[in-house]
């Protein structure tokens, strides 16, 4: 649940991050939980702070925070010996140096798609001779430092297209 780190100035290594101006590219009706609609007064395409607030409201409404363990590393997940009848999983975690083993009825694998920057510098021979700043959108905060400067954005993904419009 690294979503709670989204609004930090400097992202922690290994956590997801987004830039301040991100507006979700999925409508609130399509991205909401079926048992908890997004408030009517929220815009159809929400700013990231509103998405975060919606997730917090959902977690509070259903009292989920007591089940979330922040800053916890999952070391292993394996089927219980009686998995064919119980469907249960053994999950080993470490938090603050303390190892814990728990058994759960289900496991959700969340890969952290936005956690690690993909910066394929090998695709740009000679990039090491480039004398100006280059970085991944993960490290972008706002457009202020780029005012009246020439900028090239490489990539046609959602972030590249969004930053080109900033």
Structural notes for this entry:
- The chain is α+β, with helices and mostly antiparallel strands and 166 residues long.
- It is built from 4 helices and 3 strands.
- It has helices at residues 28-31, 48-61, 83-86, 158-164; strands at 73-79, 89-95, 98-104.
- Strands 1-2-3 form a 3-stranded antiparallel beta sheet, with no helix packed on it.
- The two termini are 28 Å apart.
- The model is unreliable at 1-8 (pLDDT under 50).
Query: What structural category characterises the helix and strand content?
Result: alpha+beta
Strand content: 5-15%
Count of DSSP helices?
4
Estimate the global geometry from the Cα principal axes.
extended
Through-space gap between termini = 28 Å
Helix content: 10-25%
Oligomer: single chain
Uncertain residue segments: 1-8
Mean pLDDT: 84
Major pleated sheet: 3 strands, antiparallel
Main β-sheet, spatial strand arrangement: 1-2-3
Per-chain topology:
Layout: H1 28-31, H2 48-61, E1 73-79, H3 83-86, E2 89-95, E3 98-104, H4 158-164
Antiparallel strand pairs: 1-2, 2-3
Brief digest:
The protein has 166 residues and is α+β, with helices and mostly antiparallel strands.
Keyword list:
alpha+beta; 3-stranded antiparallel β-sheet; 3 strands; 166 residues
